[in-house]
Specification:
Layout lengths: L6 E5 L12 E8 L2 E6 L3 E5 L13 E4 L3 E10 L9 E4 L2 E3 L3 H9 L8 E11 L2 H7 L3 E5 L2 H4 L7 H8 L5 H4 L9
Parallel strand pairs: 5-9
Antiparallel strand pairs: 1-2, 1-10, 2-3, 3-9, 4-5, 6-8, 6-9, 7-8
Length: 182
């Protein structure tokens, strides 16, 4: 499997970078200039209304999408029939689109929380940077799917991603963050 749009980067269990320890990043765009992804398993304590004065009543959770661009909100959804302009990044999974339209759908309960997720920030890599991290074996690769991206328990996404890779990866799920603590 190669890095491409619609691939999940699953952090190897001993990754030291605190921005990516035990994270799962959905690759939304990958080309010769670099890669763009959204961390899907870091739920914050914030809600959408905290960031949008005109939509203060919205209580949808906001995820930490990554360490870059913390001034920009992204969203992933499954409703191309309701939200125009989204880019399909995996089968039935769309990145972005008409943001105001998406907010109105959420406001009027026309789209369910399990059909849309909001992320503040993103993860980005310059040309060849992610290739170098792959050579260092910093990431495991998995094809994106809705059951992980819209998981009911975001804190379990990393472990469930490992499970989906097969039984040979099961021991990895229980490795300590730092083996010297063992």
């Amino acid at each position: 499997m190669e890095i491409s749009q619609g691939i999940l980067l699953v952090a190897e269990p001993f990754m030291k970078d605190p921005n990516f320890q035990r994270t799962v990043v959905l690759i939304c765009d990958h080309n010769s200039n670099g890669s763009f992804g959204i961390t899907i398993n870091r739920l914050t304590k914030d809600v959408l209304g905290d960031y949008l004065p005109d939509f203060e009543q919205l209580k949808n959770p906001v995820f930490d999408g990554g360490p870059v661009g913390k001034d920009h909100m992204h969203f992933i959804h499954t409703r191309e029939d309701l939200i125009e302009g989204g880019k399909e990044i995996a089968e039935g999974i769309f990145w972005g689109g008409d943001f105001k339209s998406a907010l109105k759908l959420v406001l009027h309960n026309e789209i369910a929380q399990h059909e849309i997720r909001f992320y503040l920030g993103y993860a980005g890599w310059e040309e060849k940077q992610l290739d170098g991290e792959m050579e260092e074996k910093s990431w495991l690769l998995l094809k994106a799917n809705s059951s992980l991206i819209f998981h009911k328990n975001p804190s379990q996404i990393w472990k469930d991603s490992i499970k989906q890779m097969g039984k040979e990866f099961y021991p990895v799920m229980n490795y300590p963050l730092d083996p010297s603590y063992n």
